[in-house]
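Saturday, quiet lab. Running sequence design on the structure tokens for the scaffold JK sent over.
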């Protein structure tokens, strides 16, 4: 039979020259990049064409042409059938353990992300499920990647037939016909070669995945494993890295961008190739519009939205709390803390703002406790975890520092509890020496005379506080603080003395907050709860009895507020440590306790760092950010309301059994060296510092030398020496046997 003359000449796809992918309508120019989620064949990979695709000579007879046409028509279907049967050779069990590896994340009590951690191999692969992803993204993903995702069993015969036909037509692999399950299989079990055997293995694995995980499991696996460039894997990590938000709510343009990136993750990274990323996003928008997922108008509008051009840092809220929680429970993939994410973010911004305003090198810490449960609602350990200039990596909520006057309320509570005083008991604020050696002064170097205990605590007067401490006993006071759960640190494990009333000990911000929360709870100190859902343990620790705790709370509620703050809203107390190293403010109402600290993490002095002027405004601002109206502490039964004159006689004035020396020293004791206000270089930074000579004139030996109210030497001579442990301002005092004293403030360098 003669050869037909009306058959078309052989096309390039039938074995002739390859058609450039950039010139072929509807195809995509491959981008040279790292392995993508979907196998992208490379025209330069050198994959040989199968024998059926060899070019038939134009001189072949008509019978040969007819058989060739039949062969061409049968190739896609034969290829699809062969691929559907899958790889006949036995395969080892599919190991899903590496694919199930996720980044550990820390969330707040509502499940909002606070801080993720990279996996052991440095990848960011955050836990994610389809329920947490914008439905618009899921619709675009299936329309673009796997139109019949809901209907096939892991392999789409129609897609494979199309891929076979494109292979036949172009003489090389144009698309792999991969479904989402096949792409997950390639990600779970990556293989570098691009061959028919690799494709058969991928199909087999895809069917295994569909069988074991189901449709929902396959989709969740894709959402978690899809590559997005560099160490970023999964749609959740990509949304945070490129868009700065969770993938639960995305714009049309954002959803299309996240669909497009896994096809060539390195070549389309927005932070490196924003123009390529934009073109890929627009192709997804066109296909989504053509397939009815979005309207053409939505696609046109989405194309006008700019593509992000930089990678954003991952969230790092509550960095210190998150790090400690993961260290305590490294096996948990998701750690839920008791923190309120909204409040945490607001207070972190507040701490950073106020620390910057206070001066260079200053750190700040804020802790918020739920008084009912003891749960930590916010924990700001520093103004910025990565701010090396402020030593931001140090969690100052756990640092031991001198509290200044912040512990005075607990002296009053112990005195009230033991019947030694009442808020209206009269105290003397006059120059006095206690135990013939200790002569405290008020912060402003003035005296108020006779005042009530209420007024003395509200004004934070030093002499009445020391007088009450002498009455209750320093050792008993320290024992009560420790019984309340506070880790009190005394200098060199010395016996408690009267200076502890004014901050001569060490305590953490966390313990201080717990003690104040105890006042709000009627004296019962809560256990700190840091994990969401954890049952609040029943606390048996007490810092005061209910009536005494209420007396203190009611007194502190009337303390003068800082400038521009309303009075009588919260009960609060401030503190300033010796040498202006620490500024404190702790306040509470019935609902919460807020504790604030500012200072340098290295302990250096900061002139002008005073609790009332620096920390108290932060405290009141933090309370306002919590929201709601402050609630006063409930008044327990058994309280006594009376004026000073109406009190029972034993409570009208503080009764003391120990006589005190007159307020003025008779011996002319004074410090000759170092002079007051001087700067002394002892060689810090040049090896071991030299000792600082201390010299006194006059007085009655033996002399007791004190630095920042801590004794450093007792000598019968009028000369001594002290080796500083750091730089900064120090107060050096000397007391003689007759009670005479003198003090100077110097700067040690």
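Result came back. Writing it out in full:
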């Amino acid at each position: 039979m003669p050869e037909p003359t009306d058959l078309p000449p052989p096309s390039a796809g039938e074995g002739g020259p390859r058609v450039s992918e950039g010139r072929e309508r509807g195809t995509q120019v491959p981008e040279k990049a790292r392995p993508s989620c979907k196998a992208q064949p490379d025209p330069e990979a050198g994959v040989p064409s199968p024998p059926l695709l060899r070019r038939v000579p134009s001189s072949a007879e008509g019978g040969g042409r007819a058989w060739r046409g039949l062969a061409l028509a049968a190739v896609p279907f034969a290829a699809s059938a062969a691929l559907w049967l899958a790889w006949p050779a036995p395969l080892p069990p599919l190991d899903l353990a590496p694919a199930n590896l996720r980044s550990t994340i820390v969330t707040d009590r509502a499940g909002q992300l606070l801080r993720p951690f990279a996996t052991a191999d440095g990848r960011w692969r955050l836990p994610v499920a389809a329920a947490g992803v914008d439905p618009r993204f899921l619709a675009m993903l299936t329309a673009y990647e796997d139109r019949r995702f809901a209907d096939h069993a892991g392999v789409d015969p129609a897609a494979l037939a199309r891929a076979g036909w494109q292979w036949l037509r172009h003489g090389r692999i144009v698309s792999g016909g991969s479904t989402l399950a096949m792409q997950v299989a390639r990600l779970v079990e990556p293989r570098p070669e691009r061959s028919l055997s690799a494709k058969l293995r991928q199909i087999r694995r895809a069917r295994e995945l569909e069988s074991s995980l189901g449709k929902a499991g396959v989709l969740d696996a894709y959402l978690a494993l899809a590559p997005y460039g560099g160490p970023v894997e999964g749609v959740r990590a990509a949304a945070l890295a490129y868009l700065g938000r969770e993938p639960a709510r995305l714009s049309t343009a954002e959803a299309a961008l996240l669909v497009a990136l896994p096809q060539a993750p390195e070549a389309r990274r927005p932070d490196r190739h924003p123009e390529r990323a934009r073109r890929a996003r627009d192709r997804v928008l066109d296909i989504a519009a053509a397939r009815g997922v979005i309207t053409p108008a939505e696609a046109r509008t989405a194309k006008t939205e700019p593509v992000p051009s930089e990678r954003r840092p991952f969230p790092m809220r509550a960095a210190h709390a998150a790090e400690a929680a993961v260290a305590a429970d490294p096996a948990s993939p998701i750690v839920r803390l008791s923190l309120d994410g909204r409040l945490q973010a607001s207070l972190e911004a507040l701490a950073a703002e106020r620390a910057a305003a206070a001066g260079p090198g200053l750190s700040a810490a804020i802790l918020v406790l739920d008084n009912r449960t003891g749960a930590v609602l916010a924990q700001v350990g520093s103004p910025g975890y990565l701010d090396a200039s402020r030593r931001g990596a140090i969690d100052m909520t756990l640092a031991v520092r001198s509290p200044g006057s912040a512990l005075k309320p607990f002296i009053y509570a112990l005195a009230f509890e033991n019947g030694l005083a009442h808020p209206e008991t009269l105290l003397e604020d006059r120059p006095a020496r206690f135990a013939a050696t200790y002569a405290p002064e008020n912060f402003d170097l003035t005296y108020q005379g006779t005042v009530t205990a209420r007024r003395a605590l509200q004004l934070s007067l030093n002499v009445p506080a020391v007088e009450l401490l002498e009455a209750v006993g320093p050792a008993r006071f320290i024992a009560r603080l420790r019984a309340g759960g506070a880790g009190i640190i005394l200098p060199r494990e010395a016996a408690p003395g009267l200076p502890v009333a004014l901050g001569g000990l060490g305590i953490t911000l966390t313990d201080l907050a717990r003690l104040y929360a105890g006042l709000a709870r009627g004296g019962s100190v809560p256990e700190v709860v840091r994990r969401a859902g954890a049952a609040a343990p029943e606390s048996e620790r007490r810092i005061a009895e209910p009536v005494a705790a209420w007396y203190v709370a009611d007194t502190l509620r009337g303390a003068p507020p800082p400038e521009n703050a309303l009075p009588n809203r919260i009960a609060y107390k401030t503190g300033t440590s010796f040498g202006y190293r620490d500024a404190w403010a702790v306040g509470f109402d019935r609902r919460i306790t807020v504790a604030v600290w500012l200072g340098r993490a290295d302990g250096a002095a900061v002139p002008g760092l005073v609790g009332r002027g620096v920390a108290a405004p932060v405290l009141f601002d933090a309370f306002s950010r919590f929201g709601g109206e402050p609630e006063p502490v409930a008044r327990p039964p058994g309280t006594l309301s009376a004026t000073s004159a109406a009190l029972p006689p034993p409570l009208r004035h503080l009764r003391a059994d120990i006589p005190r020396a007159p307020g003025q020293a008779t011996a002319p004791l004074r410090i000759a060296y170092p002079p007051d206000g001087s700067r002394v270089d002892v060689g810090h930074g040049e090896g071991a510092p030299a000792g600082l000579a201390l010299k006194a004139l006059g007085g009655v030996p033996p002399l007791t030398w004190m630095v920042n109210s801590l004794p450093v030497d007792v000598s019968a001579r009028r000369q001594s020496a002290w080796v500083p442990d750091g730089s900064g301002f120090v107060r050096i005092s000397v007391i003689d046997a007759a009670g005479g004293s003198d003090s100077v403030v110097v700067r040690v360098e």
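Notes for JK: The first strand starts at residue 105 and ends at 107. The chain is about 30% helix and 15% strand. Ask whether to fix the surface positions before the next round.
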